[in-house]
């Protein structure tokens, strides 16, 4: 078997796999930069996946069919925003412990999506999903073309989001405020930055991206919906934010590494190498843990106040 | 932003309560144009609270704020900035992982565009201000790279960039070197020709040198208001504390001659990687106070860290009763009998969310006295806390409040109580009176001398020459990670120390 074909095969599955992780962890990065971690990411992704799937499923044979995907994506973003808002209300306004609130949000989103799915749809049904949009000329470059320039619209959007969110975070006033309220909210407050509002905005933006990540899973990747469609990717996304040191480019690297490892272990299983498949399945997760453990920590870069609610009149 | 000048600012009957504490008790004060009002008072008197109310950070329970005779309501700091009031806080309000310019930009709406930030505009404004007041800052340096003195300057520049015409300075000098302090005082004097200033400090000499008028707070009340001229430092101190303050002096000189701690050729790296201690040697005798003088940033922090087991020793040794302590765990160092009063109270001295009672047994919670098997003996811990509270005059609403909510001076007393009660054989005291009022300073000096007379060896790290000259038996000067000179206190003088601290030794110092 040719090594090159093997590598290309692994990448051609791995790269599209990375998109959902990339979207979700970029969203989570904004949350955490503002000082709030949202473990409910997985639940938002479930809801996003479900709501994106529904229009495609319901409108399949109607005249609205061409718009079904767009409606679905909009619905996924909207539910993400709504969940982000809800999470902000609970953790920023009511100052609930973020870990518990996040797990609650996860279970809520996951449960509601599954229940609604069984009630309205029932069994497994496919949808046409998003079509690939090959980019003229570029997609014809050998090897690289099919790998990078023959993806669906959401995937392109996700990759463009990487430099865009770097710019937003480091070059716009909003990004500056987000970084300040995540590191030293009291200082931001004395400078007239509205800490709560900034955290709300970051959480809503993060929720929207998590919803979009869900839409990618049901419309772009699986082209169907199932209860466990997210399958822990929401939590991996949270881990990737730490892995990526709250930096969009490193997060992109982490998403790719994890997804390619995932596709690599699938490929190994298909090859039929005598290797216990349980270990192969563990590989990507072990990889993330090992890299996380080996990267040196840095106090000067991360959001120092991550996880702590802010109260102007409290000293501790 | 309106540009109406602030001819007068007054507060009337301001009252602010925190759970269990009346922090401001019907305070009335006023400041006129181009005037410098100094506010002094014991730790926890309510100075910072009152200023936070003026800045819109806290809402008063009662009372009002008047500007030019008209009542104003500040709901957020933005409102205060808009009228031209700016404050340099007791704890720096600078985001460490942002640059100076980015920190300034946070508060300047006019340079915040929707999709980009006008950094050039901010830099220009910073340069204007820093030239006008002669306050050099580098706009593109990260805050974490700056020394405390530089950060102080950035705070001032930042506040002025925001258009402050009325400056509030809450203990701006407590972390500055004597030289930096003199510069700041001179600068403020110059600035008062176009600004009004409220100046808070515990150093009464600065207050008398700088201010036009003085207000003294005690337990949330104004107990004295008057003009500065004609007031002496000792007079003010007694007005402030209610009794005459006499800072104690170390009369008998010389320790017992028995060396208890010997530091040889110590090499330790700073956070930024270079050798902050570069072959430092020092020895400490039983029953003496050895003062370590030096401009901060010359290795004091690293030395204290290394002695407490909090920083890796690259080479050299720390011998305590001939036993090696370098690179031992903090626990074994504590158990060997070394006490430590750290520079950073909130980070290393206490666990801020724990209550006072628990903070008082942080180093002894394993002892049989305080626990029985896996359980605490609550009666003992409470008794211990009550005793120490009485002995050290710790003022707090109750022993069950979070230690982090206490005022700076009282946090220091908690640490001191815990460390001294353990009767250490060696005590490392780093800036033990920084930010404390004169009464507390007197008290702490007395305790240190008392401990000394009981045979404890004390390494006193300080920048205050008066404190060092008053307390030490011998004084060593640290410069760039080495000991430049060690001498008996009676053979030295302020001038000589000042030169040595600047790194001038030998003939130049004579
Ligand atoms: N946010 C808060 N929550 C609870 N108590 C507080 C708070 N802020 C201040 N206090 C209490 O109010 C009192 C006044 O504190 P404040 O900080 O104003 O004192 P201060 O005069 O500035 O003292 P220092 O000289 O030590 O800075 C103290 O007893 C303090 O414990
Ligand atoms: Mg104060």
Automatic annotation (TrEMBL), chain A:
InterPro entries: ABC_transp_permease. The keyword Transmembrane applies. It comes from the Bacteria. The chain crosses the membrane at residues 6-24, 36-58, 70-92, 99-121, 141-169, 200-219, 225-243, 250-273, 279-299. Keywords: Cell membrane, Membrane, Transmembrane, Transmembrane helix. Pfam families: BPD_transp_2. GO terms for cellular component: plasma membrane. The keyword Transmembrane applies. It is found in: Cell membrane. Its main location: membrane. It is a multi-pass membrane protein. GO terms for molecular function: transmembrane transporter activity. This is ABC-type transporter, integral membrane subunit. It comes from uncultured spirochete.
Automatic annotation (TrEMBL), chain B:
Keywords: ATP-binding, Nucleotide-binding. The keyword Iron does not apply. Gene3D superfamilies: P-loop containing nucleotide triphosphate hydrolases (3.40.50.300). Pfam families: ABC_tran (PF00005). InterPro entries: AAA+_ATPase, ABC_carbohydrate_import_ATPase, ABC_transporter-like_ATP-bd, ABC_transporter-like_CS, P-loop_NTPase. Residues 9-244, 261-505 form the ABC transporter domain. GO terms for molecular function: ATP binding; ATP hydrolysis activity. This is Uncharacterized ABC transporter ATP-binding protein YufO. It comes from uncultured spirochete. The gene is yufO.
């Amino acid at each position: 078997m040719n090594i090159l074909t093997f590598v290309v095969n692994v990448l051609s599955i791995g790269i599209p796999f990375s998109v959902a992780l990339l979207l979700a962890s970029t969203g989570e990065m904004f949350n955490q930069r503002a000082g709030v971690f949202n473990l409910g990411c997985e639940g938002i992704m479930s809801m996003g996946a479900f709501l994106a799937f529904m229009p495609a499923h319901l409108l399949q044979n109607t005249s609205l069919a061409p718009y079904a995907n767009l409606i679905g994506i909009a619905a996924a973003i909207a539910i993400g925003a709504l969940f982000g808002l809800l999470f902000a209300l609970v953790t920023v306004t009511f100052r609930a412990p973020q870990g518990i609130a996040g797990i609650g949000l996860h279970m809520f989103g996951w449960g509601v999506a599954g229940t609604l799915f069984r009630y309205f749809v029932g069994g497994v049904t496919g949808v046409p999903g998003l079509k690939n949009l090959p980019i003229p000329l570029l997609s014809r470059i050998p090897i690289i073309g099919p790998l990078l320039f023959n993806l669906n619209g959401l995937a392109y959007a996700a990759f463009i989001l990487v430099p865009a969110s770097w710019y937003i975070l480091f070059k716009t006033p909003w990004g500056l405020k987000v970084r300040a309220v995540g590191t030293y909210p009291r200082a931001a407050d004395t400078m007239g930055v509205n800490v709560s509002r900034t955290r709300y905005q970051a959480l809503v933006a993060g929720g929207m991206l998590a919803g979009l990540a869900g839409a990618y899973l049901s419309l772009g990747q699986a082209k169907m919906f199932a209860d466990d469609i997210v399958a822990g990717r929401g939590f991996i996304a949270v881990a990737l934010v730490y892995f990526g040191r709250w930096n969009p480019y490193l997060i992109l690297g982490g998403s790719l590494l994890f997804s390619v490892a995932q596709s690599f272990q699938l490929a190994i299983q298909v090859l039929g190498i005598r290797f216990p498949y349980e270990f192969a399945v563990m590989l990507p997760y072990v990889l993330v843990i090992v890299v996380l453990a080996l990267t040196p920590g840095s106090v000067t870069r991360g959001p120092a106040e991550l996880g702590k609610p802010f109260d102007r009149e409290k000293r501790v | 932003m309106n540009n109406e000048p602030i001819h007068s600012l007054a507060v009337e009957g301001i009252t602010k309560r925190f759970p269990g504490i009346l922090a401001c008790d019907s305070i009335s004060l006023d400041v006129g144009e181009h005037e410098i009002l100094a506010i002094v008072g014991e730790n926890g008197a309510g100075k910072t609270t009152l200023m936070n109310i003026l800045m819109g950070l806290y809402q008063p329970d009662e009372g009002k704020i008047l500007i030019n005779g008209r009542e104003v309501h500040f709901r957020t700091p933005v409102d205060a900035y808009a009228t031209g009031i700016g404050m340099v806080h007791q704890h720096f309000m600078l985001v460490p992982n942002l640059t100076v310019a980015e920190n300034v930009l946070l508060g300047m709406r006019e340079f915040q565009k929707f999709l980009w930030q006008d950094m050039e505009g901010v830099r220009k404004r910073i340069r204007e201000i820093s030239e006008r007041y002669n306050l050099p800052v580098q706009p593109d340096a990260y805050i974490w790279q700056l020394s405390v003195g530089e950060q102080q300057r950035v705070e001032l520049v930042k506040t002025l960039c925001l258009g402050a015409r009325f400056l509030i300075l809450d203990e701006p000098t407590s972390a500055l070197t004597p030289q930096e302090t003199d510069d700041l005082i001179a600068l403020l004097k110059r600035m008062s020709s176009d600004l009004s200033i409220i100046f808070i400090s515990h150093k009464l000499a600065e207050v008398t040198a700088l201010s036009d008028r003085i207000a003294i707070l005690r337990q949330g009340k104004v107990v004295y208001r008057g003009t500065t001229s004609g007031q002496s430092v000792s007079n003010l101190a007694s007005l402030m504390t209610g009794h005459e303050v006499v800072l104690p002096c170390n009369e008998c000189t010389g320790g017992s001659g028995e060396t208890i701690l010997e530091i040889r050729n110590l090499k330790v790296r700073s956070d930024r990687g270079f050798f902050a201690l570069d072959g430092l040697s020092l020895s400490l005798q039983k029953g003496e106070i050895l003062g370590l003088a030096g401009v901060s940033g010359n290795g004091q922090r690293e030395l204290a860290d290394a002695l407490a087991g909090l920083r890796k020793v690259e080479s050299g040794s720390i011998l305590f009763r001939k036993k090696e302590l370098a690179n031992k765990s903090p626990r074994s160092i504590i158990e060997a009998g070394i006490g430590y009063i750290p520079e950073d109270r909130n980070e290393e001295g206490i666990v801020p969310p724990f209550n006072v009672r628990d903070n008082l047994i942080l180093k002894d919670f394993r002892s049989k006295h305080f626990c029985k098997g896996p359980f605490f003996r609550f009666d003992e811990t409470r008794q211990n806390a009550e005793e120490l509270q009485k002995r050290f005059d710790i003022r707090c609403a109750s022993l069950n409040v979070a230690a982090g909510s206490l005022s700076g001076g009282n946090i220091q007393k908690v640490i001191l109580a815990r460390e001294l009660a353990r009767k250490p054989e060696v005590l490392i005291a780093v800036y033990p009176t920084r930010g404390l009022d004169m009464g507390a300073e007197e008290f702490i000096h007395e305790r240190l001398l008392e401990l000394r007379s009981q045979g404890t060896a004390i390494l006193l790290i300080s920048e205050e020459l008066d404190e060092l000259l008053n307390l030490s038996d011998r004084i060593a000067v640290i410069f760039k990670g080495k000991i430049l000179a060690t001498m008996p206190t009676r053979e030295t003088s302020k001038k000589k120390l000042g030169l040595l601290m600047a790194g001038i030794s030998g003939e130049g110092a004579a």
